[in-house]
Design brief:
Blueprint lengths: L3 H10 L3 E6 L4 E6 L1 H14 L7 H4 L6 H13 L6 E3 L4 E3 L4 H14 L1 H35 L3 H16 L1
Antiparallel strand pairs: 1-2, 3-4
Helix pairs in contact: 1-5
């Protein structure tokens, strides 16, 4: 599971995302910056990911080749991509690193309000089910304890039998 809160600090430090107060929703929220949009567009192009959020449409200016190479070098510097040898293609390849993949998934998460709400619902359901399971375990233990004979009764029976044999 991706730790979006941990990645949030990194995204803010990279200036990919900013915190603001949403007056309409009456709550704190996050929005992607121009740097973040460009990085996400470059990320999607580099790895051939589908743009499900419509970020390319939201940013009308095409990213120049020099800017793409600058963003690519930043990805390498921050270790968002890994340099490997692709035996199938017989060339170098730059797939996403685990941290890079999780970071950009977090960026998409903070851009998409629907995704945030769905994840919050899933977390709430997990918490409710977890509490129910803990309750069931507790009830089962209590029932087992109440139906089992008391330890003191077991010991008394053994002692009486032993005394009877000695006499």
């Amino acid at each position: 599971m991706i730790d979006h809160q941990k990645n949030l600090l990194i995204l803010e430090n990279l200036d990919y995302i900013k915190n603001y107060y949403d007056v309409d929703e009456n709550k704190k929220s996050y929005s992607v910056t121009e740097t973040g949009i460009k990085a996400l567009i470059a990320w999607n192009k580099l790895h051939g990911f589908e743009d499900k959020l419509g970020v390319n449409m939201a940013y009308p200016e095409p990213i120049s080749d020099s800017e793409m190479s600058l963003i690519f070098s930043q990805f390498q510097k921050n270790k968002f991509i890994t340099k490997i040898w692709n035996a199938k293609l017989q060339t170098e390849d730059h797939p996403p690193s685990v941290d890079g993949f999780e970071l950009f998934e977090s960026l998409k998460y903070f851009i998409d309000n629907k995704l945030q709400k769905n994840l919050a619902r899933k977390e709430t359901a997990k918490q409710v089910l977890s509490a129910m399971m803990k309750g069931l375990v507790t009830v089962t233990k209590k029932m087992a304890e109440s139906s089992a004979p008391a330890e003191s009764d077991k010991k008394r029976k053994r002692k009486r039998k032993q005394r009877g044999r000695q006499q």
